[in-house]
TrEMBL record:
InterPro entries: P-loop_NTPase, UvrD-like_ATP-bd. PROSITE patterns: UVRD_HELICASE_ATP_BIND. One of its GO terms (molecular function) is helicase activity. This is DEAD/DEAH box helicase. ATP binds at G233, P234, A235, G236, S237, G238, K239, T240. Gene3D superfamilies: P-loop containing nucleotide triphosphate hydrolases. The keyword Zinc-finger does not apply. Pfam families: UvrD-helicase.
């Protein structure tokens, strides 16, 4: 088999869980078959990219590599990418302890994945001369003997001579492909059909909307802007729409009174940014130059001189706060695994019992929960206070006042262990030459606190700040917001749309959800008086879907979210016409469920836009494969959303299937939502915070639907979760027998 040449960007995209079959449908990956090698590129790659060679022939019994990167697990791919990044960073190459490296000249070997796991094999890699160094992964060996490098060196094969020509052709073809895919798909009639009907603004003008909005929305739009406003409402109650209308109104009013105004609309992700931009533009007022719409991270990139002038060569992996969190979480998990098997013993006896139990637990879910806590601690507490590892840093950290939303750390020893992890985390980032989104935001925060910004904000700051999906912002991100206003003499005027039930990332653990609550209090103290507006009519979905959502809502344990964050669901009504009862389809096996989903797509495709929302990320791989199988029939337009994929344009396609983890679908809506990948969530087997997270994702998935919901489960994965069983008993869902195979 020909060797493969690929890049860090391409490997990271694959590591989001994309199956190899999904590559042809991916808007970001490009495959090329040359004479001597195959090439896998990312849309952003250029000819100077650091190259990663993967040799796939097995010329000895010891060295084997799967035929395709898509056949490797996500953690193996992430490790390869991480290795390449470390190799290109300045200074000597350092690898985490847990990789158990051996070196010999330019050769290096390290564990491909977790030691003892199914991937407990070692890569044999070689750093080629050059900066950044290209890397050859010569294969994987099962052996754990340091001598393997010596043996390998004695019989080292050579790269096929024609690879350079193939690489150049691949880069050229990839650039052509990127250009082509930028062109509007004029031949795709589907886009033209009912184009505007499908958008959030239904093609209505601004004036038309003002007559259509509910009284609640109207009072928000008309409300005075002398104070900040919190707009609360459940999913689909028209928060985004009301924010957009109010932003337009304020601009038009300012124009009429002859005053200039600068309005900022801040989001958490690029997907929602695009949706808002499109809806503002579709309301017949043209492009309003006074309104800027950006994900918060983009604002940091635009105005933070630290970022703009950074010549260190460090790169920021993430595009928005959403993908930023994902990357950081993976890095912290790696640091944690390494730490627990190494230095942890020296701290273990001294920390408080509760924290000890969390470190000691080998359960992947507990590890994830701890990693999430650390993510907030590193970004919103330590990083936000500009504390970097070094002399005196730990004692500065120990003296920071603690707030209710932070990870409970009771003693100095508890803090010591957290700081040790922070230090390792920062070393890892340095070794990879990467910046995290939290670091960029922490730098922005320190810039916003300077005299320079105090002067500049009069021109560059904003009069009004609108924040959509406020519930998704971390304490650090919230702190940034109130410095973005123009007038230093009065409290910033911030208009926040909040749905406390949608907290896909925050709800990784209870403490994080708690953090969302109390940090919001801290945030609001810094912006003065806040008026509340409640939206109690949902416009997106039918009364039948609303009933199912209310049912899921009642399953949330009330412990984790404070009383003032509750939505009074009893008072919520749907303004939509009746629709079909949501269906629960139960198959005998995974294959059966796949077949049922494919059948549902066939049957419902003509009714409008369909989403397949995967509740638990751990099932994502399986459904991304299914998406590819459905796409290869050629009858359907299928888009797969993985974490880093840009989903521009998805908001406008009037037909088509979008497949993605539920959390990435926040802010989008579909005629039909197929929901799958729901674990059993049994009380005895699932920690409360994990249940909260999964129920929150289920809520998010269901609330994307306008007309129909179909939930799929199978016996291989334990059948229907109790919450769904009770939904059937209560008559808010109807059960259907799925495939028997
Ligand atoms: N007053 C209204 N009359 C009719 N339709 C409306 C009204 N308000 C909103 N809608 C429609 O309801 C749908 C949901 O609106 P929107 O996306 O603004 O809700 P949201 O509260 O931001 O939802 P989520 O938080 O779930 O993303 C959109 O299709 C929008 O056009």
């Amino acid at each position: 088999m020909k060797p493969l040449i690929t890049t860090v960007n391409a490997l990271k995209e694959m590591a989001t869980g994309l199956s190899r079959e999904a590559i042809p449908a991916s808007p970001l990956l490009f495959e090329y078959t040359g004479i001597d090698v195959e090439v896998l590129l990312h849309a952003e790659d250029t000819a100077d990219e650091q190259r990663i060679f993967v040799i796939r022939q097995s010329d000895t019994r010891e060295r084997t590599v799967p035929r395709h990167p898509g056949d490797l697990t996500s953690d193996v791919l992430s490790r390869v990418a991480s290795f390449a990044e470390r190799a290109r960073a300045n200074g000597s190459l350092t690898l985490p302890h847990g990789w158990h490296q051996f070196k010999r000249n330019n050769l290096i070997t390290f564990f491909a994945g977790q030691r003892g796991g199914p991937e407990g094999r070692r890569w044999i890699a070689e750093l080629l001369p050059g900066a950044p160094p290209d890397i050859v992964f010569w294969g994987m060996a099962r052996s754990d003997r340091p001598a393997i490098l010596e043996e390998f060196e004695a019989a080292k094969p050579i790269l096929p001579p024609g690879w350079q020509q193939d690489w150049r052709s691949a880069v050229e073809k990839c650039a052509e492909w990127v250009e082509l895919s930028k062109r509007p798909e004029t031949t795709d009639v589907e886009i033209e059909l009912g184009h505007l009907d499908q958008s959030t603004t239904k093609g209505w003008s601004y004036e038309q909307w003002l007559t259509e909005v509910t009284a609640d929305q109207h009072s928000f739009i008309e409300a005075t802007t002398t104070k900040s406003i919190r707009l609360r409402g459940p999913a689909g109650s028209g928060k985004t729409l009301a924010l957009s209308l109010k932003a337009i109104k304020e601009v038009l009013d300012a124009r009429e009174s002859g005053g200039g105004i600068r309005v900022l609309m801040v989001t958490h992700s690029w997907s929602l940014t695009t949706a808002i931009l499109e809806s503002v533009e579709s309301m017949g007022k043209g492009q309003l130059a006074e309104i800027d719409v950006f994900p918060l991270l983009e604002i940091a990139k635009l105005i933070s001189p630290h970022y703009a002038n950074d010549k260190s060569g460090y790169s920021l992996a993430a595009d928005d706060s959403f993908s930023g969190k994902q990357d950081q979480l993976n890095e912290i998990l790696e640091v944690l695994d390494d730490f627990v098997t190494g230095d942890w013993v020296t701290y273990r006896e001294r920390v408080t019992e509760d924290l000890r139990a969390r470190f000691d637990s080998g359960e992947p879910d507990d590890r994830k929960a701890l990693a999430w806590d650390l993510l907030l601690e590193f970004g919103s507490v330590i990083g936000a206070s500009a504390i970097f590892p070094g002399a005196g840093a730990e004692s500065r950290y120990a003296q920071l006042p603690r707030a209710g939303w932070m990870l409970p750390l009771q003693t100095r020893d508890d803090k010591r262990v957290v700081f040790a992890l922070y230090t390792k985390y920062m070393e890892n980032l340095d070794a990879r030459g990467t910046l995290t989104s939290d670091q960029v935001l922490a730098d922005l925060l320190s810039h916003l606190e300077t005299h320079a910004w105090n002067r500049a904000r009069k021109d560059e700051g904003y009069d009004l700040i609108f924040v959509d999906e406020f519930h998704l912002f971390s304490p650090l991100e919230r702190q940034v917001l109130h410095y973005l206003s123009r007038d230093v003499n009065s409290y910033p005027r911030v208009f926040m749309a909040v749905d406390p039930r949608q907290s896909p990332s925050e709800a990784f653990i209870g403490v994080a959800a708690d953090g969302t609550r109390s940090s919001s209090g801290a945030f609001e103290a810094s912006i003065g008086d806040v008026t509340n507006f409640e939206l109690t009519t949902v416009h997106r979905f039918t009364p039948q879907i609303l009933e199912l959502i209310k049912h899921v809502h009642h399953e949330f344990p009330t412990l984790d979210l404070g009383a003032d964050w509750q939505i009074d669901f009893a008072a919520v009504e749907s303004a939509q016409e009746s629709g079909p009862l949501p269906v629960l389809s139960k198959a005998a096996s995974r294959e059966g469920e796949d077949a049922d989903i494919a059948k549902a797509v066939h049957k419902l495709y003509s009714t409008g836009r369909i989403a397949l929302a995967v509740v638990d990320n751990r099932h994502w791989h399986r459904f991304s494969e299914l998406a590819t199988r459905i796409a290869t029939s050629g009858k359907f337009h299928v888009s797969t959303i993985s974490g880093r994929t840009d989903i521009d344009g998805i908001g406008y396609r009037s037909r088509g299937l979008v497949v993605g983890p539920a959390e990435y679908l926040a802010g989008l809506q579909f005629d039909v939502v197929l929901v799958a990948g729901i674990p059993d969530m049994d009380v005895t087997r699932t920690a409360t915070n994990e249940r909260t997270r999964l129920l929150s994702l289920l809520y998010l998935a269901l609330s994307r639907a306008q007309r129909q919901v179909r939930v799929f489960v199978n016996d291989d994965d334990g059948g229907a979760a109790e919450v769904l069983g009770r939904a059937v008993t209560n008559g808010v869902m109807k059960q259907e027998q799925g495939s028997f195979v």
